[in-house]
Amino acid sequence: MEQERVFQRHRHPIKTLSLGLQHVLAMYAGAVIVPLIVGGALDFTHQQMTYLIAIDLLACGVATLLQVWGNRFFGIGLPVMLGCAFQAVSPMIAIGLEDGAGVSAIYGAIIASGLFVLLFANLFGKLIALFPPVVTGSVVTIIGVTLIPVAISDLGGGNPGVNPEFGSPFNLALGFGVLLFIILMNRFATGFLRSISVLLGLLAGTLVAAFAGQVDLTPLKEASWFHAVQPFYFGKPTFHASAILTMILVAIVSVAESTGVFMALGKIVGKDITSKDLTRGYRAEGLAIILGGIFNSFPYTTYSQNVGLVQMSRVKTRDVIFVAGGLLVLIGFVPKIAALTQLVPTSVLGGAMIALFGLVLSSGIRMLGDQVDLNRHENLLIIACSVGMGLGVTVLPEIFDRLPAGLRILVDNGIVAGSFTAIVMNLLFNGLKGNKSVKAEPGQAGN
Predict the structure, then answer these.
(1) How many Å apart are CA 333 and CA 229, to the nearest integer?
(2) Which residues contact residue 89 at a Cβ distance below 8 angstroms, ignoring those fewer than 6 apart?
(3) CA distance 226 to 327
(4) Which of 57, 106, 246, 334 has the fewest CB atoms found within 10 Å of its own CB?
(5) Is the pTM above the cut of 0.90?
């Protein structure tokens, strides 16, 4: 152990740089695919998309540096990377497309949710009691299921009402080819190659489309080499109660997942994580979310895939993550690099999204299977009603249009409706502690 510490302390700068770049590559696909999806769904222009991708990468770097810094006020001080909260994709699109809300409401809600996390960091331990595994697993499952239609639509070529080539044999072959490539990479590749399978799939699909003359180079030609950071790029934020509640729920789920990542990293690096450590981690995440709202990017959370890299590489010091965060900031100031991402055809993106969104869905199912006692009828009923309500409202949101505006805050968004249903039913069946929802350890008596 002592030899490993000495080695890490005196590591060659080139090695540190390469290890930092590996962390950037491991999270790059997950980072850039969020602005591609959200910007595409909201019909952003090439210029707006370039800005969104560039500022997102820059904000990922800043958020990572805030968290890894680790001072007495904020930052957990562990080798952790931060990126876009994938759970926020569907809610952001829903808010952006909502009549009377729009893009300005997205960023107002993000800022409000970040303030909520920052101000209530000390009390989050108690608030998370409302989100035991049966609730968190149900919410993540709902988010995953509501994202799948977006992936299928993109795989076909985009909006079927707009794109005359939607569902063409070429688009289907390209989309399913990318999906098959990612599957095969996960089956036969190992280590680092496997961790960047989505990024390689996007590159391979784009190259095939380029040879077929299906890649538009306009965004790359129009992008500049440098741009300054511009707060409120998409306009002054507006604040809508329903949008704010939605993003607060997403933030709570993200914080609950981050808690698991912090605890896992603590075990890997041999550090006991205290409640004060968690509070500083929550504050850093709240600051990152606020910055995302101000600079019109996204809410940010810890990325679990980078935890695997820490364990795999056995390099557990923070210097590598400082380098990775710095690289992301540097990349974010160069729009040409961000514009490269826009070259990815919609059907290629859709093929990768099926895998990524499917992983969100499967992570929710895994939470329910690993941590929830599914032998209890009450837990099954909580899952059934919350997921059913979330899907139902997503498919037919106008069912509650005739209710009072104050009540519609809780029911006019599928994720909010499903989450509220899960919280209330868990309190009804399991109480505030929710002990009965948790799967008993081997050797313990179950219910």
Answers:
(1) 8
(2) 34, 37, 38, 147, 150
(3) 15
(4) 334
(5) no
